[in-house]
Amino acid sequence: MYLALATTVSNDKLVQKAGEAGIYLLEQRGQHVELLCGEVRTF
């Protein structure tokens, strides 16, 4: 199982915490979604 957090607004601290937790962080940028944190773990 993988975890992901999707957001329309992010900051450096959120990106860092998501990376430390090992979850995907997805951010909406215009008409597309961008993957900001790719270092994930399985749960």
Fill in the keyword field for this structure.
1 helix, three-stranded mixed sheet, alpha+beta, 23% helix, globular, 37% strand, 43 residues
What can you tell me about this protein's structure?
With 43 residues, the chain is an alpha+beta fold. It has one domain. 23% of the residues lie in helices and 37% in strands. The chain has a three-stranded mixed β-sheet with strand order 1-2-3. Strand 2 and strand 3 (32-37) form a beta hairpin. The radius of gyration is 10 Å and the shape is globular.
Summary of the model, kept short:
With 43 residues, the protein is of the alpha+beta class.
Break the fold down into its secondary structure elements and pairings.
Blueprint: E1 4-7, H1 12-21, E2 24-29, E3 32-37
Parallel strand pairs: 1-2
Antiparallel strand pairs: 2-3
Kindly provide the radius of gyration, computed on alpha-carbon positions and rounded to a whole number of angstroms: 10 Å
SSE run? EHEE
Q: How do the strands line up in the largest sheet?
A: 1-2-3
- Termini separation: 5 Å
Contiguous low-pLDDT stretches (5 residues minimum) are: none
Average pLDDT, to the nearest integer?
A: 89
Count every beta strand, where a strand is a DSSP E run of 2 or more residues.
Answer: 3
Overall geometric form: globular
How many discrete structural domains? Answer: 1
- Helical proportion? 10-25%
Strand content: 35-45%
Q: What structural category do the secondary elements indicate?
A: alpha+beta
The helix tally amounts to 1
Largest sheet: 3 strands, mixed
User: What is the oligomeric state here?
Assistant: single chain
